[in-house]
Amino acid sequence: MLNFEYQIAVFTRWCISRIGDRPMLVAVVTLGGLTFLIATALVVAQSRLRVDEDPRIEPVYELLPHTDCGACGYPGCRAFAEALAAAEVPPGKCTVGTEEEKQAIADILSVDVGNVEKVVARLACAGGANVARMHAFYEGLDSCRGAALVAGGGKGCFWGCLGYGDCEAVCDVDAIIMSQDKLPVVIEDLCTACGDCVDACPKDLFTLHPVSHRLWVACKNLEFGDPILADCEVACTACAKCAKDATGGLINMQDNLAVVDYTRSHDQRHAIDRCPTGAIVWFDKDQGPQKGPAARKVFRTSVRHVAPT
Amino acid sequence: MTGIMDTALGAPSFRHGVHPREHKEDTRGLAIRQFPFAPMLIMPLRQHLGAPAVPVVRVGQEVARGETIARPDGFMSVAMHAPASGVVRRIELAPTISGDMVESVFIEPLPADTQEVDDGEPCRLDNATPEQIMTAIQNAGIVGLGGAAFPTHAKLRFPDDKHVDTLIINGVECEPYLTTDHRVMLEQSADVIAGIRYLVKATSAVRTIIAVEANKPDAVTALSAALPDDLPVDVTVLKVKYPQGAEKILIKALLKREVPQGGLPIDVGVICTNVATTAEIGRLLPRGRGIQERVITIAGPGVEKKGNYLIPIGTPVRFALEACGADPDITRVFMGGPMMGPAVSNLDIPVTKGTSGILAFTVHETAAIVERKVYACIHCARCVESCPVFLNPSHLGLLAKNEQYEQMADDHSLYDCFECGACNYVCPSHIPLVQYFRLAKKMVRKLRATH
Lengths: 309, 451
Fold this sequence. Notes:
Chain A has 309 residues and is an alpha+beta fold. Chain A has 9 helices and 9 strands. Helices cover 30% and strands 11% of the residues of chain A.
C-alpha cells in the first residue's frame, strides 16, 4: 500500500519535472481535459434532461402574424402558439391573421378553426371639429392625455374626443387615422382589437365590440337635454326616442345616455330612425356609420366657428 | 420695520427654490371687500379631497344663506353651506377646475333678500372636547384654504401613537400675485388667534409658530400685536423664496425636521394649517356657521378692478371677471397662483373653497409664451438646483418623454414631486416638466390600478 502511494508521488514529481518547462503542454492538456469534461456533461444533459416540445408549435408559430399584439389574450404570438398546441383556444381567436393562415393552422392541429367573431374598436364620440366647439385653446404637450390634465382639455363637451390623436399614435397596425375633423376613424379591416387605443384614450371613448354590434351610440355625454347642443351638434340629448323605438328593451336610458344592451337581439336598424341629432348610428359594412333620416344634417366640413369663452 | 428686516437677513429658509417676481404690489394694500352675488351660484359637491358630500336639499327648495345644503359622506368629507339665500334650481353635473364633471347644487340667489346669515349651534372653546371641535370643523365645511382643500378635521385626527408638539400656522403665501392670506393676517388677526386656541385645544400642541415671509412686514406687526399672553405663540419671519409655503418645505425651514417620504407632517410631530383656514375656524366655530364665502385675490394684467374680495363660494369665473372689469383681450385665466394654479378651460367653472385667486392675462403677456418653442434638454441642471425636494427633474423629464412612467415612480421618487413648478420656471428649453410629471403620476396610478 505504502509502496503504491510512493509510486504515485514519484509519478507526480516526474510529471511536474517533465511539464515544468513545457507551458504549451500544460495549456493543451488543461483545455483539452476541460473540453472533454464539458462535452461529456452536455451529452449527458442532452439525453437525460431533454424536454420534448410539441413539434407542432414551431410551424404554427410560423403561420401566426408575429405582431405580438396581445388581442388574443396571450402575451405574444409564441405564447398563443403554445396555447393553440395545447388546445386551449381555437385558431380563430387570433384577430390579425388571414382566414387561409388560420385554416392552415387548424389543419396542422387537426382542429376546427373556431368561429370567433372579429372584434373591433368603436369610438363613442362623433363630435369632430366641424360639429363640436372648444371652450378654450390648449397649449402644451401635443397629446390628448396631456390636454386632459389641464382642467379637462377645453372641449365644450367634457366627455368628447380631444382630437390630438393619442390613439392614432399608439395603433401599431395603422387601423386608426385622424379625419380632417380631428376625429379618429377606425378601419375595421385592419383593427386587431389589441386594446391599445382603449388604454390610450384619456376620455375612455374606445371600447372593443364584435363587428356584428352594428347599432352604436356615438356619444358619452351625460348632461340632460338640449343645452349640450350649443357645444356639440351630434350629442345625445337623452330624448329617449331610440329607447322607445327599439323592441325588447334593447336600449335603456342610463344617466341621460342611451345604452344598448347587446345581450338582447340588436339587429334593429329602425332604432336610429327618429334620432334628432344622429348620436345613435348604424355601422354599415361598406359605408361606415350611418345616421337616421331624422338626424339634423351636417354640411359644414370646415372647423366650426369658435370663440373661446 | 428695521427689526423685521434684521431678522429676515438671518431668517430661516430652505435650500434650492426660485425667486419669481412677486407682483403683489397691486393688491396687497387693498382691503377685503364683499363681492356681489352671481345670478346663479354653482356648488360642486366635491370641492375637497375625499368623498363628495351628499345633498340634503331638493330641487325647488328655498335655502337660507349659511344653511347646510350637503352633509359629509364619511370621514374624508365635509359639509357644504348655501352661499346665498335663494332657490335650488338644479342638482346636476357641472364642470370644475379638477377637469371632472361633478354633481353640483345650482342656487339662484333671491334678489330681494337681506342675505343675513343665521347662527347655528356654537362650539364654545371653554367647554368643547377635542372630539367636538373636530366634528364642528367638519360640519362647518372647513378645508385647507391654501389650495389643496384637504379636510382640516382629518388633519387634526391622528393615531394615538403619534403626538403633536408644534402647530404651524402657514401665512407664507409664496405664490406671486396672491395677497389673500396677507389681508387675512392684517384684518382678521383676532380670528387667527381664536382659531389657534381651537386648534391647540384639539391637538394639544405645545407651541405654535405663525410663519410669515419677510415681504409682509405689516402682517407681522399686526399679528405680533394680537399675540396672547397665555398661549405660547410666536411669529417667525422667513426669507422670501418660492415654494416656501409648501407644508413639508416649511417644516424643514422652520424646525429642520424632514417629513419622511410618503409621510405626513404628523410623522414629525407637526400639524400645519393655512392662516386663512385658522381664521375661519376662529370666526365660524363660535357662531356655529359654515364656510359660505372666502377671500380671494382677483388680479393680473387682464383685470381692471384688482382686489381682495370676500366672494361667495360657487361664483362662476365668468361673473367674477365681468364684475371686475375684465379686459376684452384676456387669453389666459388661472385659478390660484400662477406657479401652481391650473388654467381655466371653461369660464363657467365656479370658485370653490380651494380657490385662492383668479388671475387673468391678456394677449400681450401670453403671445410670447405661445410663440416659444420647446427645445431639447441641454442638461444645464438649473431644474436640479431649483427643485426644493432634491429630485432630478431633467432626468425625470427624459423618462416621461420616453413613457417610462413606472421607472420614474420606482427609481426616481416621482411621488415626492408636489408640482410646485420651480423646474418649469427656470427651464431655458421651456420643457413642460410639471405637465409631464402630472401625466406620469396619472399613468402610474392607471397602471397600478389595472395590474
